[in-house]
Every structure is written in structure tokens, then in C-alpha cells.
Design goal:
The complex is a heterodimer of chains A (328) and B (439). Chain A is an all-alpha fold and 328 residues long. Chain A has one domain (2-327): Orthogonal Bundle (ABC transporter involved in vitamin B12 uptake, BtuC), CATH 1.10.3470. Helices cover 76% and strands 1% of the residues of chain A. Chain A has helices at residues 7-23, 28-51, 61-78, 83-105, 110-130, 155-180, 183-193, 195-200, 205-231, 236-239, 242-255, 262-280, 285-299, 305-327, and strands at residues 140-141, 233-234. A two-stranded antiparallel sheet of chain A has the order 1-2. Chain B has 439 residues and is an alpha/beta fold. Chain B has 2 domains: 28-159 and 305-387, 3-Layer(aba) Sandwich (Rossmann fold); 162-294 and 389-430, Response regulator (Rossmann fold). Chain B has helices at 2-23, 43-63, 91-104, 116-128, 142-147, 161-175, 192-208, 229-237, 249-261, 264-267, 276-282, 308-321, 327-349, 357-364, 414-417, 425-430; strands spanning 30-36, 80-86, 109-112, 132-135, 154-156, 184-186, 242-245, 269-272, 291-293, 368-370, 375-380, 385-387, 390-398, 403-412. Chain B has a 6-stranded mixed sheet with strand order 6-7-8-9-13-14, with helices on both faces. Chain B has a 5-stranded parallel sheet with strand order 2-1-3-4-5, with helices on both faces. In chain B, helix 2 (43-63) packs across helix 12 (308-321), helix 3 (91-104) runs parallel beside helix 4 and helix 6 packs across helix 7 (192-208). The longest helix of chain B has 23 residues, at 327-349. The chains are: A mainly alpha (328), B alpha/beta (439). Chains A and B meet through helix 1, helix 2, helix 5, strand 2 and helix 10 of A and helix 1, strand 2, helix 3, helix 4 and helix 5 of B.
Chain lengths: 328, 439
């Protein structure tokens, strides 16, 4: 048991408690931004899993969109609004899709992998935008989410959804964290560093990538499902279009791959920058976003998390120095 | 690691407190959030004219220089300040932004929205956060027929898309008898707006001119494709002379340029339901003898309508922006006028005191008010959805004035092209347009 109680686990748990406490005090608009950050952060977490093995996807809106539309379609055609059921379906459907695509995609690396993902996501966009039964470009609106027998209205609904999403996201982040620390998880780095050597050690690099791709699909679907419930509406432009995939890559670059908590902080900062850029510079907000990305790439190539790393390294260094001094 | 979470918490707390301080500072001016396309492909033809329209009408309102009945200063005496923001980026962004405007910046109302997709996405949220929202351009009937059936806070001050396509069918059946001998064909983008437009037009034609048949196959090129070589070839081969198209923006401009080069518009008569939005931009290059729609007495159809308000709007708009006002300018300005009408009326009903939002809503619900170049009746969906007359005519370039005009204009009454209250648009079209009162 203690094997699972490392620093990240503690930090995530404290983060969860903090979020739940914060939930009582934040204004509604900010709660909605936090919820969106959890959703988008989850997708970026999926990207992080791939990134660790040196792969980047330019089409992760595919899974985000699949998760979101699964929830919306279940609400529309089956009339089931239960959060637990719909989210499970969203995750399973997106994960299943990732598993199937994985057979093809695991053979590709680098830009080919990235662009094939983009291609698949744009197929989804095309289908969603053209089919009237899927709402076309106007999208589908969701009925209010319910939680088993609990059906809160108005602000209470978002309040409950927030707690629901925070706990689940915590679980997802922990699961991914412990996966990454397992043997299979460490193989990610091996894939990135030297694939041939990994194969000679007796592991299949393709298989490792396939598993990771499926995980990132599952997590992406989870994010999409949460986003659909938060917004209460799905449409192809904000769920499956290529700039959305770009947003996720942006968040991943902004946060860095150092820790599973990073994408959520990155997503929140992204949302805040966007919100204020939107407010203050309505005509050039895209320029602000692009400029931010440029600055991050230039000055923090390993993302915001590298600040934490640098800081904690300096601290441990100082601690060691002090300890030695005391000894002397 | 713990420290990082602590940092994040500090960040959260500080952001939240900034927000709280910001909200405390709303004084005696009304804040109107105005979403419109400020960037992207819809900005030049829709977003910017819309923004100009709001700026101009608000200037008139704040200075009290509008002609009667709007000659008092402000909305219920208070000056109003517009907060323009971008409508780009899909429903998620717009829903988030609406929450921000309502709860962070505490705006008094929203006037705007161009895309049907945005309107569909935000309608329920606007009701949830209890923000007076006046939709100004978007056309999908789904807003009140499917999404918000019992609206309280959401209004739309333009007629929805169904009326416009019905009007086009009336015009075609009456004025284009010769051209319709071989039927008609559709060229619409393959997405919600294109599909809906064609469905409405086709259903209306089936009722108004049942002898005229549509082509067996309609064309649905994909949105933003930009290249229409094969579509133009197919249209040139088709025997149908009348083409219905809901193209807009960059796609429409590209299509017009490519079609003109191949002589398409000499052989066909097009019904461009949203054509007016690019008419002034293209000027002489816009093909003559084509139908353009504006969904009411706006833009090119408002030229020459002699009301004091229209003369004021035309004169000032042309002076300030060096171009004639087009459909979105009128429709956005109309949304602001609706707000002024409602605030002023609510204040009067409230014994001269500044009204509450509920009183403003009560004043606007079911109201009939004078707009810039016509009358708007909030007649449908419990008094939240407007109907207006519709106008259709053929384009012609006026060399003397040096601008595009419309001729052979047919004015269709509001009650002729719109369903009666309580009847949804598609069942109304399918059921033989019962209750339509055409003069």
C-alpha cells in the first residue's frame, strides 16, 4: 500500500480536497472554467502519456469529440441523463475507438503519427458537420445531468457536477500516474530513447505504444464527456475541429510532461489567459494566445512544470548543503 | 509538490477576488455585451457591419439624437456602453463567455449572435444564468421550437430562417414563372444552415407551386470548400433555370467569381438567401438579375424606405463608415432598439422609475415596435420570437448612384411568410401553411 503513497499521490489528493473546498466559494463562472480545465486537462493528460514515448498527436479532439458526442447522443436518443452511466459510455466508446485505431497508428512515428491522428479527427468532424441526425453544425443540446437519483437544478447542478468531475479526475490522474510508474509505464521512455534496444530486451515497442494510445483515448473520452456535461451542448466546431486539437497540444506544451498534475494547471492557466485576452483584446486575442505559446517555447521549453522541477531541485540541493553543514 | 498546489490555490483565490472587485463597479450605465465575429471568415461580411450598426445606434441613443419615438437619451434614461467580443471558436467558448459576461462582468444584457450554431449552444445557458439575451441575426427556428420552449430571458428580434425561404418561394412562384418551367435545383453547403434552408424552401415550393418540381439530385458541397468548378459544370448542364442557394461569406464570394467567369449567371436565376451580405462589397461585380434576401426590410431593401429613423441611419452610417449599411448592421441595431423600446416602456409602466429586468422582459414580450425601416412584432413563441415583413427583388447595378440596388421588389407580409403562434415551422410548411395571411 505504501508503495502507492508517493509525493504526487499526496499532492493530487490535497489538490482534490482544495478543489472541493474552493467549490463552495467560487462564483459560478469560475466554477465553469475550473470544470472545463478538468475536462481539457484530462485530454492533455492523454497527450502527456503519448508524449512520454516521443509521440505527439495533432488530432486528440477525435477522442474528446467522441466522448462528448457519446454522452450527447445517449441523452438525446435514450433519454438517459445519469452522469455515471453516460460518462462510462463516453470513456468506453472513445477508448474502444483508440484501441481499434491503435492497430494502424502504432506503426507510425513522428510527424506521420501526428498527422494521421489529425486526419482521423477531421473525418469525425466531417461526419458530424454533415449528418443532420447528429445535429450537424448546430450541434446537440443536453438535458440537465442527473446523478443516480439526485437531480439538482440551476447552480446546484454545476456544483454537484464539479464534485463528481473532480473526484473522477483525481482517480484518472492517479491511475495514469501509477501506470507511468509501472514497468510498462517506464517503457514509454525506453520507446522514446531507443526503440531497437527495447525490442532486443524482449518487449514489443508497438505493443507498448498501442497500450498507451488506448489509455490516451480513454482519458480523452473522459475529458470530452465532462466537457459535454459542463457546457450542456456539443457541436463539431468546439468538440472535433482541428483548432481544438491544437488547444490540447498548446496545453500540453504549456504544462510540460513532468507530472500528471501539470496538464490540469496548464489547462486552467490556458482558460484564464484566453478569458482575459478575450475580454481585453477582443480583436487580437488569438495573437495573445500565439504569443504566449511562443514565449513558453522560447523560455520554458519543458513547460511550466520545469519551474517546479528547477525549484525543488534547488531546494533539495540547499537541504543537502545544510545537512552537510550541520554534520560538519 | 505540496507547495505547488499551495501556489495554485493562491492563484485561484486571487483570481476570484479580482473578479469580485470587478463586479462591484457597475454604476449608472448599462453594460451591453455584444458578441459578433471580430475575426475569421465571417468578420468582413457579418461581424464588422454588425458592430458598426451597434456603435452608430448607441451613439444616437446616448446623445439623444435619434428621431421619434426614440428621441430620449439612453435606455430608460441611462446611457449604455457596448462590450464587443468575438463570436469565433464554437459553442463551448461562447457558452463560457456568456457565463463570464453574466457572472463576472455583470452585464445587463446581451445583444447579438450571428451564427445559428452559437444561438443553439447558448440559448439554454442564457435562461439558466437569467441574462436578458436578444438574438439578432441567427436564423435557426430550433432556438424556440426545440431548445427553449418556455423562454423567459431569450428573445430574437429578427424573423427566423423559415419565413425568408417561404418568401423566396412566393416570389419565385409569382415573378419567375417562365424560369421555373423546368423546375428548380438547390446548391447549399452541407451543414445545418444549408440543409435547413433547402428543406424550408423545398417544402414551401411544394405548397405554393406544386406543379413545379425540384431536380432529382441537389448539390451539397462541403462548407468552406472554396472551389466550385464541378458544381458550376453540373449546374450549367442542368435543365433547371432557378437555383436556390444559402451560400454566404467567403464561399459565396468565391462562387460568384467562379460562376461569373463561366457565364453561369447569364443562364440561371439564383435565389441567394443571404446574398445581400456581400452585395455591397462586390458592387458592380455582383451579377445582375439575381434574387438576394435579407430576411426583412434591411440593408439593400431599406434603401429608399422613407422613415425618419431610416433616413437618419442611412445618412449617418454612410458618412461614418463610407459604405452603405447592410443586413447585419440593421439587424444588430434593431436588437439595440428593441432593448431601448423595452427599457423606456418598462420605465413608463413603472411610474417613471428605473425598471427591473423582469419589468423590461414583460415590456418586450409580445410587443410591437417601430424599427429602423419597418415594424417588428414579437408574435411567436410566447412573444419572444419576432416576425417581420419579408422583401425579395432582383439585383441591378445603378450606374448613376454607383451602387447595387434591387428592382421588381415584392413585399410579403409578416403573417404571410411566418407560421402563426404556437405552430412550429416545419409542421407548418408540411401541413400546407395553414393560417398564412397573404394580401
Amino acid at each position: 500500500m505504501t508503495k502507492y503513497m508517493d509525493r504526487t499521490t499526496w499532492a493530487l489528493t490535497i489538490g482534490l480536497v482544495l478543489l472541493i473546498v474552493v467549490n463552495f466559494f467560487v462564483p459560478e463562472w469560475f466554477r465553469s472554467i475550473l470544470l472545463l480545465s478538468l475536462a481539457r486537462g484530462s485530454v492533455a493528460l492523454g497527450l502527456l502519456v503519448l508524449w512520454r514515448c516521443g509521440l505527439i498527436s495533432f488530432g486528440h479532439a477525435l477522442f474528446y469529440g467522441f466522448g462528448a458526442y457519446t454522452v450527447a447522443l445517449i441523452v438525446k436518443y435514450l433519454g438517459i441523463t445519469d452522469a455515471f452511466f453516460t460518462i462510462a459510455c463516453g470513456v468506453v466508446v472513445a477508448g474502444g475507438l483508440a484501441w481499434m485505431l491503435g492497430f494502424l497508428l502504432r506503426r507510425y512515428r513522428g510527424i506521420f503519427f501526428a498527422l494521421l491522428n489529425l486526419a482521423f479527427s477531421m473525418i469525425l468532424y466531417g461526419v458530424l458537420a454533415k449528418l443532420e441526425s447528429l445535429g450537424s453544425t448546430d450541434g446537440i443540446s443536453l438535458e440537465r445531468t442527473t446523478f443516480l437519483w439526485y437531480a439538482p437544478e440551476g447552480a446546484a447542478n454545476k456544483f454537484a457536477l464539479f464534485i463528481f468531475a473532480a473526484i473522477l479526475t483525481w482517480g484518472v490522474a492517479l491511475a495514469v500516474h501509477h501506470y507511468l510508474r509501472s514497468t510498462l509505464g517506464y517503457m514509454t521512455t525506453a520507446v522514446r530513447e531507443n526503440e531497437i534496444r527495447l525490442e532486443f530486451l524482449g518487449y514489443s515497442a508497438e505493443r507498448a505504444i498501442h497500450v498507451k494510445y488506448t489509455i490516451s483515448g480513454l482519458v480523452g473520452g473522459f475529458g470530452g464527456a465532462i466537457a459535454a456535461m459542463t457546457i450542456g451542448h456539443v457541436d463539431p466546431d468546439s468538440m472535433a475541429y482541428w483548432p481544438i486539437s491544437g488547444d490540447f497540444v498548446f496545453i500540453a506544451i504549456l504544462s510540460g510532461t513532468g507530472n500528471v498534475g501539470a496538464p490540469f494547471i496548464g489547462a486552467l492557466i490556458y482558460e484564464l489567459i484566453r478569458t482575459y485576452a478575450f475580454d481585453q483584446f477582443p480583436e487580437i486575442w488569438q495573437l495573445i494566445m500565439g504569443g504566449t505559446l511562443l514565449l513558453i517555447v522560447m523560455f520554458l521549453p519543458n513547460g511550466l512544470w520545469s519551474l517546479v522541477d528547477r525549484w525543488s531541485k534547488r531546494r533539495t540541493g540547499r537541504d543537502r548543503l545544510e545537512a552537510e553543514r550541520e554534520k560538519a | 509538490m505540496k507547495h505547488v498546489k499551495g501556489r495554485a490555490a493562491v492563484l485561484l483565490a486571487s483570481v476570484a477576488s479580482v473578479a469580485l472587485i470587478a463586479t462591484a463597479a457597475s454604476a449608472q450605465t448599462l453594460k451591453i455585451a455584444v458578441p459578433t465575429f471580430l475575426t475569421g471568415g465571417s468578420a468582413p461580411a457579418f461581424g464588422i457591419p454588425a458592430k458598426n450598426g451597434v456603435e452608430l445606434i448607441l451613439k444616437g441613443i446616448n446623445e439623444g439624437t435619434l428621431p421619434a419615438p426614440y428621441n430620449s437619451v439612453g435606455l430608460a434614461g441611462r446611457k449604455a456602453e457596448p462590450l464587443f467580443y468575438d463570436e469565433m471558436g464554437g459553442g463551448t467558448k461562447q457558452v463560457t463567455e456568456l457565463r463570464n459576461k453574466a457572472q463576472k462582468e455583470k452585464v445587463d444584457m446581451i445583444v447579438g449572435y450571428i451564427s445559428s450554431g452559437t444561438c443553439a449552444a447558448v440559448a439554454r445557458v442564457a435562461e439558466e444564468v437569467k441574462l436578458l439575451t436578444i438574438m439578432t441575426v441567427c436564423g435557426t427556428p430550433r432556438v424556440f421550437e426545440e431548445l427553449v420552449k418556455e423562454p423567459k430571458y431569450v428573445f430574437r428580434t429578427v424573423a427566423h430562417g423559415t419565413g425568408n425561404n417561404t418568401g423566396a418561394a412566393h416570389y419565385a412562384a409569382k415573378m419567375l414563372k417562365d424560369e421555373l418551367k423546368d423546375g428548380y435545383i438547390g446548391l447549399n453547403q452541407n451543414y445545418a444552415w444549408g440543409q435547413d434552408s433547402w428543406r424550408d424552401f423545398n417544402l414551401a415550393m411544394g405548397e405554393i407551386a406544386p406543379d413545379v418540381k425540384p431536380a432529382k439530385k441537389q448539390q451539397f458541397p462541403k462548407l468552406f470548400s472554396g472551389q466550385y468548378g464541378s458544381e458550376i459544370s453540373a449546374l450549367l448542364r442542368a435543365k433547371q433555370k432557378v437555383v436556390h442557394s444559402s451560400f454566404w461569406g467567403g464561399d459565396l464570394e468565391a462562387f460568384l467569381a467562379q460562376g461569373t467567369a463561366r457565364g453561369l449567371f447569364k443562364r440561371k436565376t439564383f435565389i441567394f438567401t443571404v446574398g445581400e451580405t456581400v452585395a455591397y462589397r462586390l458592387g458592380k461585380k455582383f451579377p445582375s438579375g439575381q434574387l438576394v434576401g435579407t430576411r426583412g426590410p434591411y440593408g439593400i431593401y431599406a434603401v429608399g424606405i422613407d422613415t425618419p429613423l431610416n433616413n437618419w441611419f442611412q445618412k449617418n452610417y454612410r458618412e461614418i463608415y463610407k459604405e452603405p449599411p447592410s443586413q447585419p448592421s440593421y439587424q444588430y441595431a434593431q436588437g439595440v432598439l428593441a432593448a431601448k423600446y423595452a427599457y423606456d416602456k418598462a420605465m413608463k409602466d413603472n411610474g417613471g422609475k428605473f425598471p427591473t429586468t423582469d419589468q423590461v422582459i414583460a415590456a418586450l414580450r409580445g410587443a410591437t415596435f417601430t424599427s429602423i425601416a419597418g415594424t417588428v412584432e414579437m408574435a411567436l413563441s410566447h412573444g419572444h420570437q419576432a416576425i417581420t415583413e419579408d422583401r425579395w427583388g432582383l439585383t441591378a447595378y445603378d450606374e448613376e448612384k454607383g451602387e447595387l440596388v434591387v428592382k421588381d421588389v415584392l413585399v410579403l407580409g409578416a403573417k404571410c411568410v411566418n407560421p402563426p403562434d404556437g405552430v412550429e415551422s416545419v409542421p407548418w410548411l408540411k401541413g400546407g401553411m395553414k393560417g398564412a395571411k397573404c394580401g
